[in-house]
Amino acid sequence: MNHGAPAIALVLVLLASTTLDAAAQPSQPPGQAPATQPTQPPVLCPVTGKPIDRLCVARFRGKWVYFAAADAQKKFEADPYEYADGVQAQWLADKPLRVQVKCPVTGDLPNPEIYVGQGEDAVFFASDEARQKWQADRAPFEKRLEADCYTFQTQCVTCGGAIAPAASRQADDRTVYFCCDGCAAEFPKNKNEYLKQADAQVRANKTAWLTRLLEQKLGAPATKDADAKPR
Ligand SMILES: [Zn+2]
What we know:
By secondary structure, the protein is of the alpha+beta class. The protein has helices at 5-22, 70-78, 84-93, 128-136, 139-148, 181-186, 191-218, and strands at residues 53-60, 63-67, 99-100, 111-116, 123-125, 150-151, 168-171, 174-177. The chain has a domain at 44-93.
């Protein structure tokens, strides 16, 4: 991977902070492989129908699409609309664990068309100027990105749809996200219940995200089934 030792240290620190929360949750039954998202269908390649490799990624209609391998990605890029059904299925199955809601340079809402990097490594910016500042020297902004620019609450607490960074409300000490202003308007009617849902999402997604990141950095394919042989 491309981030190296500082990233691993950061993951360990964050993971330590979330395992305190996780300690209150029921633990994994012994002898069972840990699943990052146990309640969700598998995220499959729209070209081959096989499990995805998140390093094989393309941009399509303002979102990322992941593939099983580089040749599947090339096939897709040659004729993306041929695989539209598979793409839709992947997007439905692939609930993000975190969403970037602020530009790391300006602190404003990120523009989905202004970014660097790909897939889960992509970083979005509020403006071209902000992107240029990051590209010239990203060091001053990296810490802010990780600490302050993502939410682990990725689904609207009112309807379950994908959150929109612009549709948020402040509540107590935190920001709660919704898919649209209509859903945000529902928030005061059942505030405590929605807050509880938001907190549960944050806890589950943060733990899953950090676990996955750690597996990637350490190169340990913990979710791989021992029986699963290619072909
Ligand atoms: Zn909603």
